[in-house]
Amino acid sequence: MLCDLSKPIMSNQNAASWGYFDTVKNEFNIPILEAVNFPVHLLPHIGPAGQIVGRLQFPWIGIEPGCSVGIASGDLQCFAYSTLSHYKLKQHFSGSDDFGFVNISTSAQIGYIVPAPDDKSAPGVEYFPYFDGYYLAVGASLNGGNVLSSYVDSILNLLEEFDTHVTKDKAWEKIMTAGNATLGTDLTVSAILFGERHCPEAKASISNISPSNSGLGHLMRALCKGLIDNLAQFISPEDLLQKGINSIVASGTALNRNPILQQELRKRFNLDVVLNESDAAFGVAQLCRSKIK
Predict the structure, then answer these.
(1) What is the C-alpha separation between 153 and 167, in angstroms, rounded?
(2) Which DSSP string corresponds to the chain?
(3) Would you say the C-alpha torsion 111, 117, 118, 121 has a positive or negative sign?
(4) Are 72 and 11 in contact (CB under 8 A)?
(5) Taking residues 133-148, what's their average pLDDT?
(6) Are 45 and 95 in contact (CB under 8 A)?
(7) Are 46 and 12 a contacting pair, CB within 8 Å?
(8) 291 pLDDT exceeds 80?
(9) Are 226 and 60 in contact, with CB atoms under 8 Å apart?
(10) Does residue 217 surpass a pLDDT of 50?
(11) In the chain, what percentage of residues exceed pLDDT 90?
């Protein structure tokens, strides 16, 4: 529509998210779809993510005609592109050009770039088409900042039952201060509050409770540690080192605002970790810039 093309075109990144798409052959599973009378003639052509396919044919939301239009890329891929390419170009890390990423916002992801999928990956690790024929190996957890928010909400609800009102900002401030002051804890939290895609029945749990570790600080510290430990169940520090990865670019609103999460990430993975505030929007801007000469 934007370029007045004879047929729509999409990237393999977005096509893979539709399903019934062979990422190796880079085509839809036409025989399977035809067998159930799916109208395969409606399927779009496939092209490389970011490739310029035409020019805007009419004014659109303030954009003048003639603007170059590229094939839309995936959100996760653009986030990874913004994070990893930025630091590779800056040569921020010394000694290695290979590094992974961790993102903790509402949910959480850990991953790295690979040339091809690996059948021996841990449960929950998925492979998504990236750029230039590469793949993203990603452990995508349903549990991230949403778990910490639920904890704060539960504290506020408990206080309300005692007719005590505390603002959410004040609760966060108190809990974060207590967590920062608690440098370590033997309290153990399995922070899988919302289950996982590969194990939806999983539930959170708390163990090793004692009179000395039941305060706000211990629980916040243990929750943050539990979230990081859960990511390590997808892709462990040993997995990264075996791939030659000894550095992590870390981002996401929950992670950037939470020094406890940052500390626990560094302790659990024992790798060079650098915080980054890039996002998918910045990534697609970088990609478009690289395509427009």
Answers:
(1) 10
(2) --S--SS-EEEHHHHHHHSSEETTTTEE-HHHHHHTT--GGGSPEEE-TT-EEEE--S-BTTBPTT-EEE----HHHHHHHHHHHHHHHHT-SSS-S--EEEEESSSEEEEEEESS--TTPPTTEEEEE-STT-EEEEEEES-SHHHHHHHHHHHHHHHHHTT----HHHHHHHHHHHHHH------EEE--TT-BTTBTT---EEES--TTS-SHHHHHHHHHHHHHHHHHHHS-HHHHHHTT--EEEEE-HHHHT-HHHHHHHHHHH-SEEEE----HHHHHHHHHHHH--
(3) positive
(4) yes
(5) 95
(6) no
(7) yes
(8) no
(9) no
(10) yes
(11) 76
Tokens standing for residue 261: 């999460």
What is the Cα–Cα distance from 110 to 102, expressed in whole angstroms?
Answer: 4
